Amino acid sequence: MSGASGRVLVVDDNRVIRQLIRVNLELEGFEVVTAADGAECLEVVREVRPDVVTLDVVMPRLDGLRTAARLREDPATRHLPVAIISACTQYEVESGIEAGVDAFLAKPFEPVDLVRLVRRLARREGPPAPDGRQGIGQPGTAQGAGHPGSTQIAGHPGNAHGIGQSGTAHGVGQPGSARG
């Protein structure tokens, strides 16, 4: 693990969001490397050997969902923890779970939720999954920054971006919720 807390590859086409995530993680001791889209992520992931990758969904060249799927297809990155940081529509959550995404964080987010989520993934806290991945839930279940073992999306208070018992996303597209 690089840096005091680990190395994170932050992938987002929005320079301001990349910088926001970078600053918050660096303040907590993480080493942060950034990429502007999924294609750049795939170019640098083997070189920088991150402990965690965060992906936006909507990006040019290669979106976050296809990037996550490619990371899972590659034996060198198959077990790398991947988190989606996006507005997290129901489609994105379902597609992300199918692609092997480990966690979701809804935009807008609180910095404390970002740090908690990345720290948990970097430490691989939690029970081992049947496929050998550590601390990132069972295959096909994504975890947010909430209670261990719960299937949810962490988000900004008041936006209620969560997954209910039926697996449906609640609060997505509500007035006041962010897109991104």
TrEMBL record:
Keyword flag Phosphoprotein: yes
Region (Disordered): 125-180
Annotated ranges, domain Response regulatory: 7-122
Domain of life: Bacteria
Keyword Iron on entry: no
Gene Ontology BP annotations: phosphorelay signal transduction system
Keywords from the named record: Phosphoprotein
Residues with the 4-aspartylphosphate modification: D56
UniProt-listed Pfam families: Response_reg
Protein name in the entry: Response regulator
